[in-house]
Design goal:
heterotrimer; A mainly alpha (about 240); B alpha+beta (about 250); C alpha+beta (about 625); A: 2 strands; about 70% helix; elongated; B: alpha+beta; Ubiquitin-like (UB roll); Fumarate Reductase Iron-sulfur Protein, Chain B, domain 2; 2 domains; 5-stranded mixed sheet
Chain lengths: ~240, ~250, ~625
């Protein structure tokens, strides 16, 4: 095996890190979205789901997942920084005139969309997980308990979501970020498969199709929550 | 037809360059793009000015010497064409045309539209070959190679080393060039022995030369005058990782 | 001066084996003490440089390109011949030898050609081992086709890019040696002179095309693989940068130039479209398998082709050569096209073109079959001309394609200047007066991979060479001369660009020393070319010598063409016969066939330089044919 330093510094290795961690984050997003969509089944289901996540494996599962996500997130961002710096340096003198054929605004601004999503994620955690911003809607506050059918008392996550999305600032930020996330995924998914080398003549068209499907699907899926709240479909 | 050209002029590798505007009149639609520049150059010489330096040689689209970015596209607007095979009938009277050199840190400008592509040679030197000395070969037919594999190797081997892939890539990445060579030799039984070290060494050299990383925009495939597929990049990504975990050296 | 071919004794079939069996060898430990300069990195140069480095010699390779992969060998489309007889159709080494000798109109040396046919088979093996993706059959075995009218299928090919693939194979081998530090590659360096010390070739003077620095590089032997001189015609199918400078400079330093008048014209090129035309594009001859060639019967008929009725068309090849028709050999088809155009019946805007019509083939076989056979060629034609050959007949015209002449070499591929070896198209050795299709690639690689590695070793083992350095007076003088030449050229500051001189020279050469020649025209050319050397009073080269200056590069090349053109005309004028690529109008049969004169001209004409504008001295190497009978071809 080649000296590890060489391998580590090579662009393809960094891209593998980016692709693998990216796909882990996509899996997380799908899981997260599935959980969120429980809102359409009512407060009981959603709150029970939230509770069971915290209870799984005597409460260690959620920490394992959080740890894994954190590592994936850090590695994803780290490789993004290295690759972006490398790519910027590779063309010190820009073209006066450009006329792109296949790349899109979205594919060329992955670093920017990624950065904005990162900022949003921190804000989102501060809001929904920690309750340090918009604490008036925090599910963990006193008085927001919910009693499940089996008698267990849990925080009312359902109420937090509905209350939050009635705030226009929160909803606007949320929808904008989900659109960004959709654009990010639109390029990211096919790109990850290409980087991992699983594409070929037969499956490439499928993979190239997967990006937009996931991008639009995830963005629409998440946005369905605030839209449903505003439309009064869930309350 | 009459055209207005904005051409990158740069006196030498360390000089500062800028776009200069030239009006050319009575351009025949049958001219090739390079012949149009020839005529402009003859004109400039007549006026005692320094003609525009641009690389070219075979003028039939195979040597890979010529190359310039025309209105933001390497080799100009027509797909699967080198600039020497681009004809003026593609343009129309009154067009404004921006002409710039390949832009990449690994392709420093030597003069005007001429860049130094020595970095490609250095990538090749680290593994773009099969190590066989002259005179050691067995009979060519003792090693049957399926037509599919031979054709696949040829698809990759069609690369003319012009550098349009690098020029087109938003990241100035040389992945398509390198992957074409790794893919060509990797598709053949003769190339298996060194397959793993080849991918590793060529990729590392690509980094040393200062090319960017592939972020899968696929601009390279669209700009390639020989239409080489990005499928070869996926293949090289696989070969590379296989060499990280499996290679021994 | 007596020209010794150094052909080994013994029967033809054993000469090369015998030569190698008795060759003096260089001790492996000593090989690295020998420095070899290889100029040019095309098929011959790259293969020679790589192979010599593998053997352990210290090699410096020079190319004026930015990469060794760009040499003009890359443009060869059709294929490479080899006497493999994989098709079991009667091919053999002797048959390839015989076809080459006969195709060359009996003006090549038997021993060299036989060796070429012998090593041809090893070339294919070597290239396959390097990873050249030759076309394969479904069973996985190598595919062959018949090419250029050969009666056997012995041509190996890689799509329409055989030259490119073979060159890349050699380039890869070269890159490997560069990576190993055994070849020092000098890109963007143009040879300006040969350095001869004590009668031996000991180095070159070269100009760095980026910095303009002129310096000497010394060695124990110099190998020139610098290609042909077709660009003396200005318009040819050669790449724009191809030039005669390296071989002509060697000629001026004493190397004999042999048979410069042998030039091959290719009949199926895309006609010139205007004065700005910079080069001509060749289309595969295979088009003549299905296309019919014609011109209007009437002079000056400007009707579009579809409005000219069948009865008013002249299918002149089918009329004159009923048995071969449109598939008549290259030179015959070319001359017939020129005659039709000279007669005022040419087509297209310039009147220099004939129709190659696929209408019959399309109605007989269907458009799909034609598209399958020639799709890529039709596409290329349409890209260049803007006309769709499925609906409008193609226009074609002959163009200069290959030059058989070159520096005179012996069996060892060494010129009369000891230590100066010449390979590939740059030498005169294997094709006689005319080259067969798919044989140029074969010769380049044979010389580089399989001949020079032996013969160069023999030269080194044969005698001790004193060491010389760049301080040798001969080296310093050559550098000074080159610098002064550049300085002089830059100081003229006249009115005409180098291209305008080149174009005018080309027009004279094409007109007087092109497809067909006659005494009057050649004599006229011999007065007009020296006049054109007013170049030295009236050329203008903008910029300086200390920078990348393409006008200067061109000026230096054109200056040599302006002397070389004269040499060609002298050779063409002296050869009072027609043979292969040399057609003298005075010497033809009643049917317009080339009339050879074996009694008086069965020799290679090697010319010695005697000064600018002074008639060169002729030396003859008689050609003896012991294994073939001199025959006259007929295509009636």
């Amino acid at each position: 095996m080649r000296a590890f330093g060489d391998v580590w510094r090579s662009n393809i290795f960094q891209k593998w890190v980016m692709a693998l961690t990216g796909l882990m984050l996509v899996l997380f997003l799908i899981a997260h979205l599935t959980g969120n969509l429980l809102i359409f089944m009512g407060a009981e289901h959603m709150n029970e789901y939230g509770h069971s996540l915290r209870e799984l494996l005597h409460g260690s599962a959620i920490w394992l997942a959080r740890g894994g996500l954190l590592v994936a997130f850090v590695l994803h961002v780290w490789s993004a920084i290295l690759l972006t710096r490398r790519n910027r340096a590779a063309r010190p003198q820009k073209y006066v005139k450009t006329d792109w054929r296949t790349s899109t605004m979205a594919s060329r601004s992955m670093a920017l969309s990624g950065l904005l999503i990162l900022v949003y994620v921190l804000y989102h955690l501060a809001h929904f997980t920690l309750g340090t911003v918009h604490s008036q809607y925090y599910a963990g506050q006193t008085g927001w308990e919910y009693t499940l059918a089996n008698g267990t008392v849990v925080p009312d996550v359902y109420r937090m979501v509905i209350a939050s999305f009635q705030e226009p600032l929160i909803t606007t930020l949320y929808v904008l970020s989900m659109v960004l996330l959709g654009l990010h995924l639109n390029h990211a998914v096919a790109s990850a498969f290409q980087t991992l080398g699983v594409t070929n003549r037969r499956i490439s068209p499928l993979v190239r199709f997967l990006g937009p499907v996931l991008g639009i699907g995830v963005a629409l899926g998440f946005c369905s929550l605030p839209l449903a709240v505003i439309a009064g479909l869930v309350h | 037809m009459n055209l207005r050209l904005h051409i990158w002029r740069q006196a030498g590798p360390d000089a500062t360059g800028m776009l200069k505007t030239y009006d050319v009149a009575n351009v025949s639609e049958h001219m090739s793009f390079l012949e149009m520049l020839d005529v402009l150059n003859e004109d400039l010489i007549g006026k005692g000015e320094i003609p525009i330096a641009f690389d070219h040689d075979c003028r039939e689209g195979i040597c890979g010497t010529c190359g310039m970015v025309i209105n933001g596209r390497p080799h100009g607007p027509v797909a699967k064409t080198t600039v020497c095979q681009l004809h003026m009938r593609t343009f129309k009277d009154g067009d404004e045309i921006y002409i710039e050199p390949w832009r990449a840190r690994a392709f420093p400008v030597m003069r005007d539209l001429i860049v130094d592509r020595g970095s490609f040679d250095r990538i090749m030197q680290t593994g773009g070959f099969i190590s066989v000395n002259t005179g050691n070969a067995q009979d060519g037919n003792t090693l049957p190679i399926s037509k599919i594999n031979a054709d696949h190797a040829m698809d990759a081997a069609a690369c003319i080393g012009c550098g349009a892939c690098v020029a087109a890539c938003p990241n100035s990445s040389a992945m398509l060039f390198t992957a074409a060579k790794v893919g060509h030799l990797g598709a053949l039984p003769q190339g298996q022995t060194e397959r793993s070290t080849r991918a590793m060494n060529m990729v590392l050299q690509m980094d040393v030369e200062g090319f960017g990383a592939c972020t899968n925009h696929l601009e390279c495939e669209a700009a390639c005058p020989k239409g080489i597929s990005v499928e070869f990049i996926a293949q090289m990504n696989r070969d590379y990782v296989a060499s990280v975990f499996g290679g021994r050296d | 001066m007596e020209l010794k071919s150094n052909t080994p004794n013994g029967p033809l079939t054993e000469q090369w084996d015998d030569y190698r069996a008795h060759l003096k060898l260089v001790n492996p430990a000593n090989k690295r003490k020998y420095n070899v300069i290889v100029v040019g990195t095309g098929l011959a140069g790259a293969s020679a440089a790589a192979t010599l480095a593998e053997l352990g010699y210290n090699v410096s390779a020079f190319t004026y390109h930015d990469s060794a992969r760009r040499a003009h060998s890359i443009a060869a489309q059709g294929g490479i011949n080899a006497a493999k007889n994989y098709q079991n159709d009667g091919d053999s080494i002797f048959r390839l030898f015989y076809d080459t000798i006969k195709g060359g109109d009996f003006r090549a040396r038997e021993s060299n050609v036989y060796r070429l046919a012998q090593v041809s088979t090893s070339i294919i093996d070597q290239c396959v081992a390097q990873g050249v993706p030759f076309a394969r059959e479904y069973g996985g075995y190598l595919s062959n086709r018949s090419f250029g009218g050969a009666q056997v299928s012995r041509t190996f090919y890689a799509r329409g890019q055989t030259g490119q693939q073979l060159l890349i194979g050699a380039y890869q081998a070269l890159m490997r040696q560069v990576g190993l530090g055994k070849v020092k590659l000098h890109n963007k360096q143009e040879m300006m002179d040969l350095i001869v010390v004590d009668g031996h070739a000991r180095g070159i003077v070269s100009r760095d095309m980026v910095t303009g620095k002129i310096e000497s590089f010394m060695a124990d032997a110099v190998v020139l693989a610098t290609g042909g001189y077709g660009n003396v015609f200005y318009l040819s199918t050669n790449a724009k940068n191809c030039n005669v400078t390296a071989t002509y400079r060697a000629h001026k330093r004493g190397a004999l130039f042999a048979n410069p008048c042998y030039t091959q014209i290719h009949p199926t090129c895309i006609p010139q479209s205007g004065d700005y035309q910079s080069k001509l594009t060749l289309m595969s001859e295979s088009l003549r398998n299905d296309g019919r060639i014609w011109v209007p019967l009437k002079k000056g008929d400007t009707r579009p082709p579809d409005q000219i009725p069948e009865a008013e068309r002249d299918y002149y090849l089918e009329r004159k050569y009923p048995s071969f028709g449109n598939l008549s050999p290259r030179d015959i088809a070319s001359r017939a096209a020129k005659e039709a155009c000279d007669d005022g019946r040419g087509v297209g805007p310039s009147g220099l073109g004939v129709y190659l019509d696929f209408a019959d083939a399309i109605s007989r076989l269907g458009k799909d079959v034609i598209a399958d056979r020639y799709g890529n060629l039709f596409e290329m034609y349409e890209r260049i001309t803007g006309e769709d050959p499925y609906s409008v007949p193609m226009r074609i015209y002959p163009a200069v394609h290959y030059t058989m002449g070159g520096l005179w070499v012996d069996y060892d591929l060494m010129s009369n200047v000891p230590g100066l070896f010449v390979l590939g198209e740059a030498n005169f050795s294997d094709h006689g007066a005319n080259r067969l299709g798919a044989s140029a690639l074969m010769q380049g690689l044979a010389d580089g991979y399989f001949v020079i590695p032996y013969t160069l070793g023999g030269y080194f083992a044969g005698g001790k060479l004193d060491s010389v350095s760049s301080d040798a007076p001969e080296a310093k003088a050559a550098v000074r001369e080159a610098e002064e030449k550049v300085k002089l050229m830059l100081s003229i500051n006249g009115k005409r660009s180098p291209t305008s001189f080149h174009r005018e020279l080309g027009a004279i050469m094409w007109d007087k020393c092109g497809m067909s020649r006659n005494e009057k025209g050649l004599t006229e050319a011999l007065t007009r070319i020296p006049e054109l050397r007013e170049f030295w009073k009236n050329v203008v080269i903008p910029g300086s010598g200390a920078e990348l200056n393409q006008s200067l590069e061109l000026g230096l090349r054109v200056a040599d063409f302006l002397e070389f053109g004269e040499l060609m005309c002298y050779d063409a004028l002296h050869r009072n016969e027609s043979c292969g690529g040399h057609f003298r109008e005075e010497y033809q049969t009643e049917d317009g066939e080339a009339k050879r004169n074996d009694d008086e001209f069965c020799y290679a004409a090697a010319w010695e330089y005697t000064g600018v504008g002074s008639k060169p001295t002729l030396h003859k190497e008689p050609l003896e044919f012991e294994n073939v009978q001199l025959a006259t071809r007929s295509y009636k």
